[in-house]
Amino acid sequence: MRKDLKYLIFKDLIGGLLITLKTFFRKPVTVQYPREKVTLFPSFRGRHALVRDPETGEARCVACLKCVQVCPSRCIEVKFEVDQETGARKMLAYNLEALRCIYCGYCEEVCPVGAIVLTEWFEYSSRDRSGLIFNKERLLKNWDEFVERFPEKVYTNKFWNLKGVPEVLKPAPKREGIMVKVRE
Amino acid sequence: MALSEGLFWAIFVTLLKIAVVLGIVLLHAAYTVYAERKIIGRMQARLGPMEVGPYGLLQPIADLVKLLFKEDIIPQEAHKVIFQMAPLLVLVFAITNLSVIPFHPSFSIADVNLGVLVILAFAGLGTYGIILAGYSSGSKYSLLGGLRSAAQILSYEIPLGLSLAGVILYAESFRLQDIVASQANSLFGMNVIPQILGFIVFLICAFAETNRAPFDLPEAESELVAGYITEYSGFRMGIFFLGEYISMYVMALLISLCYFGGWTLPIWLTTLLPFIKVIPPTLILILKVYFFIFLFIWVRATFPRYRFDQLMSISWKVLIPLALLNFLWIAFLKWRMLT
Amino acid sequence: MIERAIALLILTGLFFIFTLLAFFFRHLVYQFLCILVLMVLQGVLYLYLNAEFLGAIQVIVYAGAVLIMFLFTLFLFPEEELKHLKIDLKNLKYSSFLPVALFIFLLLSVLVKGIPESYQPRNIYFDLKEISNLLFNEYWLAIFLLAFILSFPMVALYVFFKREEKSGSS
Q: Is domain C1-85 annotated with CATH 1.20.120.1200?
């Protein structure tokens, strides 16, 4: 009987109408993208870059191949040579296929020296596939383009760190969080 | 024997009236599309069209230009003549309804004694546009959409007519001007108060007659692609939409005239708020019509589509008995008033 | 007056054209459309006779509702069965002979007998109501015969279908 009464006075229908009316007077959530931009969270994972060391002007990479191993989609390819005298590795080529990347961020977490990072730069595209296969020079250029946004500040990203690992177990360059000096 | 001068004058005045009404209504139809997109957008916490002009105000013009310059595709399997004629049928029968509707106590294109019946007749004929569009496209989706629409309009025309019968009985006239006048003179001021049942039935039928959500079964995109307009493109599709929006306006006008007193305000309202009398009569009618257009859009933003068997059972099992009940109640009321 | 006469002429012409078209179209749906137009024209004819209510009801019930049922039935057939209808012109000739002959007979009788003085000749040619008044009052026998003979095709159709049914069952 009560159900019938509910039916008769259109309780459900009017309730539904009121909800849409309430939303009608709410502020829309739309962001008008090219004119307004979304404020990105610091953990945002965008275009790849190789951090340019401000002292040497070169990539920090030590060719440990950890990123190659950890990458789920196997989009990173690193070529290196071993110095016969010291036994130190030297990175020769660093190719990253952004088309295959799933932006999981494992590479930047696992990197012991903080060389490969995913920047907060999301507006990039290419007319052909080769434009999205980054080599070493391109990755370094990506970094330069990214840091241009912070001309005076020192940029730190606490998310470029391995999660759940005690501080003492972390490699030395990562222990205090990566401080990227942008300008001397 | 020359045609009399009076006839020429009458034709000239009628043409002028038609031009005025058509101009206003077409502009309204174009901007209703904009209003619909905007309102539904806001109801879904979006912005709606914003790009063309300030706040997207030029969007209807951009749409029109786009539709005009699109290719007019006629499918190979189509019956060419019927295919080209069907959208025009829809539009013509929608527009013809406007000719008998009074917009002001002394302004209507044709002052017909049977205004309500003429509207019902043309609403019934408008179905042919849809069903023939469905048939002539030579596509199964179109055919099913057309058949659905015909069945729907056929079964909803009956409660629509029956609920209007109550109004006609109350006003003792088929003429829309008389219906409005009888409401202004009555105790309640509006037909909606004694005939709330008939009003609800009429409102639901108006949604179904104009193929609007939640009764837009003929164009259910999840089942029938786009129903009877699947094969149409360019301006022919635009004409279908134009017809739909104009018939929406006709229904909104009919509701305001038959149930909400048209351009008059109830006496209890004017005694309560005397300053309200200043509003010109046409503006009152227009405000009422705008409210119902908003309601059409509001309902579309809110309710999901009915299933086809539900649609049919609502009409035959619920609305027709309710309309008959309303008719009996009005007959009783009329009898009490006369004795 | 002349406007009414022109309107009547156009109306009659449309009736004639669409009746013929209904015969000569090869496709059932097109034939149906002609019937639809005829139904609407009938509504207009009622309007012409100052029977507005009847006209509106004619359009609502016959053109709006009953014919849609016909169309529904047509749509249930496959497309191949709807088109390329065979028209037997010989049959048409025979079936149309009687009504046409009777119509000519009626016309001749009007011409021979002449129009009585009580009817103003001005009105007779322009007003459908006057014409029907004249025909039903002065030539009732001919009209009655015409109606009687026009009912023959219906009987013939019934017999035809009965025979077809019998031959189909046996």
A: yes
